[in-house]
């Protein structure tokens, strides 16, 4: 069974009937932190402030109907995955279909039975947490905790689109540990794994903006996506990184060129106004960065090289 994180969930109750709100609070206060909204307008403000883990929604609200509130939440990307459970005394034929048609996860019929309410809510919260956990695992490299190749590929497409739309530069860098085969051959694969983890930690810590991405690209190779970062800015960040990896002072194999473990870096950038900024080939910037990495290796390793997009 998947282990879920049992910190208290954030539950939003949207209902203008005080007796229902009190009953729900009593039933659910051990499961989650409860917030209340008495109409749709107030609810949307509260949802925007902080996305709840689950919403309990009355079908009849003073301003907008509950079914409409649910459809709106399901059409917005940021809120579409929040489970919505309707609270209703409506048992007319066809009502069930209406509730599921607008994307609700479930509905609870009044009069409320506290144990049933708690059990249903807990099931949906556990399910939601399990999905989040699976999504995280699917996008994370298990050895280093960095983003994995899948995340890099997905994010690159999104960030390139954004960069072109906003007319902002975007840098992609590829980073490779130097002469790592010699490290493995000398110290063994377990120490090799530890070395990769140490480097990965330093790479992750070098990301300064929440939009920057450090990923394990494969084996002993890593990749960065640095949105809104031009060639000069990237050069500063990557040169500092080169030094900080050296300063980790990880002893290299005696056969290696340097005493301590070093990295080689290649990068390229999409620059607004430049010929290749609108290139439909999303991978052109990665290919250029890869070529630059090859240059760094050829020129003696432990250095940063830049390849202009389109010069291949
Ligand atoms: N311990 C360990 N080694 C790995 C892992 N992934 C890749 N490697 C090793 O990394 C080494 C990469 O070797 P090469 O591609 O020949 O490159 P290199 O020795 O780093 O030489 P240059 O890249 O030219 O500086 C291989 O020995 C792989 O087995 C891993 O997860 N753990």
TrEMBL record:
Residue numbers bearing the 4-aspartylphosphate modification: 58
Keyword Nucleotide-binding: no
Matching InterPro entries: CheY-like_superfamily (IPR011006), Diguanylate_Cyclase (IPR050469), GGDEF_dom (IPR000160), Nucleotide_cyclase (IPR029787), Rev_trsase/Diguanyl_cyclase (IPR043128), Sig_transdc_resp-reg_receiver (IPR001789)
EC number: 2.7.7.65
A matching Pfam family: Response_reg
GO molecular function: diguanylate cyclase activity
This protein's GO CC annotations: plasma membrane
Keyword Phosphoprotein: yes
Catalytic activity: 2 GTP = 3',3'-c-di-GMP + 2 diphosphate
GO terms, biological process: cell adhesion involved in single-species biofilm formation; negative regulation of bacterial-type flagellum-dependent cell motility; phosphorelay signal transduction system
Top EC category: transferase
Superkingdom of the source species: Bacteria
Listed CDD domains: GGDEF
Cofactor requirements of the protein: Mg(2+)
Residues annotated as domain GGDEF: 168-309
PANTHER family named in the record: DIGUANYLATE CYCLASE DGCM-RELATED, REGULATORY COMPONENTS OF SENSORY TRANSDUCTION SYSTEM
Protein name from the UniProt record: diguanylate cyclase
